[in-house]
Automatic annotation (TrEMBL):
Domain DNA-directed DNA polymerase X: 3-316
Major location category of this protein: cytoplasm
GO process terms (BP): DNA repair
GO CC, one annotated term: cytosol
Keyword tags: DNA damage, DNA repair, DNA replication, DNA synthesis, DNA-directed DNA polymerase, Methylation, Nucleotidyltransferase, Sodium, Transferase, Ubl conjugation
Species of the source: Pseudogulbenkiania subflava DSM 22618
Protein name, as recorded: DNA polymerase beta
Molecular function terms from GO: class I DNA-(apurinic or apyrimidinic site) endonuclease activity; DNA binding; DNA-directed DNA polymerase activity; phosphoric ester hydrolase activity; zinc ion binding
InterPro entries: DNA-dir_DNA_pol_X, DNA_pol_B_palm_palm, DNA_pol_lamdba_lyase_dom_sf, DNA_Pol_thumb_sf, DNA_pol_X_beta-like, HHH_MUS81, Hlx-hairpin-Hlx_DNA-bd_motif, NT_sf
Length: 573
């Protein structure tokens, strides 16, 4: 089975990390990082195309050299450049870069002074107090590293959900065509739309007398069969993903779907409620005095407990059962509620598409407005816009807008860097010329909680409309910043600033719990694609899914407002 794009992208990330440790040319490092991001978000599996002997599509930021490397990785699983770099830098050293507080310079120190080559190695040294004595380290950083290591070592195995989607859809398709199969549904954390998944759970309703697990384990992508029976199977796919299959009779499909969707805590609560009513729930149905009285659909089970169906995204034991009982479940946001995108990049900075192509793509998705927000001057590698180029872009937007035919209204904006001390990377005069100011941090992620908090509070006191990817996390790669989030929310609410839910599948920042905190604090969320190409706008859908997990409704979301309402919001600052 071909490698996922996300795996190829990991090879590029690793190359970038190793080049970084070797102090290679920053532009070269950047090219690998950009290509990694493009790949991880691309909707078609490139290795599959390579396997079929088809040419690669033209991808933004990926020229002949990187294209050759993609083919090489797709065919061999690795590439010569990576092998060479790995020979020069021990493997786990690069991993250390993903810990907060560790850049290439400190990683080099750890390697040279203490011969540290892996996270567990580092943990050991830090526990003995050896790390604090190194030049450029200290007791605080040592403590911070220990905490991050503890967290990191147990979240490593989870995969971003978006990255396994093609694989899951392929399996579902296949199972639907297996003889005897009536219904197929993916359950577990995938169905609850968690940002990451540990494994995949698939449920099948089948007529009696068919060996569905046999057909399943014979799928071409299966590498190893971990367990197999007449009603279940567990396999590992060639790309490492584990998939659990359960087969039930059609009359049990709803009860089984409920059971295997989880969460476990949600299921346990339902079972307790049932017991209070003299009922028994298991994965086959609901029983009273040994008689089966429901279970073909999820709604038949919830109905017996006098509840509406609770959307899978909410089944986390975060108050959803209480809400369902009191008839106060939220009316969750849907894709149709979104009217615009307020954070996007063009080829003027590190994006790939023209303003016009971005606008046309936004229109094609049914959006009504689009903010163009390229990077500010400090982002040199991302070709951040200086004053002259920004003013030229504002003129260009005016020209495009008056020429008409775009299908969306453009808003003039910028993603302005928040400097280390909380000032913004643009003069107040220029900020005032923009329709919308999106502020974001791109460095100094490891400041102390106190300093990080005052940095953000200071940023919010300036003319900022949206605080972008507020915690800075990258799933599986960079921990969220340390910050007093409640205080940030309080100030955001006071000054009338929204917080972003960045919909890039590896960011999804804010996460579900933070979204809910924001809602409860009365702070609007803006769900933005942070697109770096026209195709990236489709990532908005992952944002909607995460927002639903955060209990968000239409009125909680800034970009569900009409253009007139949005403009009124923007004008207040
Ligand atoms: P994951 O795979 O770590 O992303 O998370 P889940 O939620 O998909 O967990 P998983 O794959 O271990 O199990 C799938 C579902 O099966 C889970 O959400 C609820 C159900 N389940 C698993 N084990 C138990 C159990 O011991 N008791 C109950 N009530 N349900 C369970
Ligand atoms: Ca699972
Ligand atoms: Ca499982």
């Amino acid at each position: 089975m071909p490698l996922y794009n996300v795996r190829i992208s990991q090879v590029f990330e690793e190359i970038a990390d190793l080049l970084d440790i070797e102090e290679a040319n920053p532009f070269r490092i950047r090219a690998y990082r950009n290509a990694a991001r493009t790949l991880s978000e691309y909707h078609q599996e490139l290795a599959a195309l390579v396997a079929q002997g088809q040419p690669l599509p033209k991808l933004p930021g990926i020229g002949a050299d990187l294209g050759t490397k993609i083919v090489e990785i797709a065919q061999t699983g690795s590439c010569a450049l990576l092998d060479r770099l790995r020979g020069e830098v021990p493997p786990a050293v690069a991993y250390l870069l993903s810990l907060p507080g560790l850049g290439p310079k400190r990683v080099r120190t750890l390697y040279h002074e203490l011969a540290i080559t892996s996270p567990s190695h580092l943990q050991h040294a830090a526990e003995q107090g050896l790390v604090r004595r190194l030049p450029g380290f200290g007791p605080k950083l040592e403590q911070q590293l220990l905490q991050a290591l503890a967290k990191h070592l147990d979240t490593q195995a989870r995969l971003p959900r978006a990255s396994v989607r093609p694989s899951v859809e392929k399996l579902l398709d296949y199972l639907l065509r297996v003889p005897g199969v009536r219904q197929v549904e993916v359950a577990g954390s995938y169905r609850r739309r968690r940002d990451t998944v540990g494994d995949i759970d698939i449920l099948v309703a089948a007529a009696p007398g068919y060996d569905v697990p046999f057909a399943f384990t014979a799928h071409e992508d299966v590498d190893e069969v971990l367990a197999q029976g007449t009603t279940k199977a567990s396999v590992r796919l060639r790309n490492g993903l584990q998939v659990d299959l359960r087969v039930v009779r059609p009359e049990s499909f709803g009860a089984a779907l409920l059971y295997f969707t989880g969460s476990k805590a949600h299921n346990i609560a339902l079972r307790l409620m049932a017991r209070e009513r003299g009922l028994k729930i298991n994965e086959y149905g609901v029983y009273r005095d040994g008689q089966r009285i429901a279970g073909d659909s999820e709604s038949s089970v919830y109905a017996l407990l006098q509840m509406p169906v609770i959307p899978p995204e909410l089944r986390e034991m975060r108050g959803e059962i209480e809400a369902a009982r009191h008839g106060s479940l939220p009316t969750l946001l849907t894709w149709q509620d979104l009217r615009g995108d307020l954070h996007t990049h063009t080829a003027a900075s590190d994006g790939q598409s023209s303003i016009k192509d971005m606008a046309l793509a936004a229109h094609a998705l049914g959006l009504e407005y689009l903010a163009i927000t390229d990077h500010s001057p400090q982002q040199r590698l991302a070709r951040g816009l200086n004053e002259e180029r920004l003013l030229a872009q504002l003129d260009e937007i005016d020209r495009l807008q008056s020429a008409g035919g775009l299908g969306v209204t453009l808003l003039k904006g910028m993603e302005v860097d928040i400097l280390e001390d909380g000032r913004l990377d643009l003069s107040a005069a220029l900020l005032d010329r923009l329709d919308i100011v999106v502020a974001a941090m791109h460095d100094h992620f490891s400041l102390s909680r106190a300093r990080q908090t005052s940095r953000l509070l200071r940023a919010l006191d300036q003319r900022v409309h949206i605080l972008a990817h507020p915690t800075g996390r990258l799933i599986g790669r960079r921990a969220p910043i340390a910050v007093d989030f409640a205080l940030v929310l309080h100030r955001a609410r006071e000054v009338g600033c929204a917080l972003e839910l960045d919909a890039q599948p590896l960011r999804l920042d804010l996460d579900d719990l933070h979204c809910r905190e924001a809602k409860e604090a009365g702070v609007l969320i803006s769900i933005n694609s942070d697109a770096h190409s026209a195709a990236d706008l489709r990532n908005l859908r992952y944002g909607v899914e995460q927002a639903r997990r955060g209990w968000l409704e239409r009125q909680d979301v800034l970009n569900s407002r009409t253009l007139a309402q949005l403009k009124a919001f923007l004008k207040r600052r």
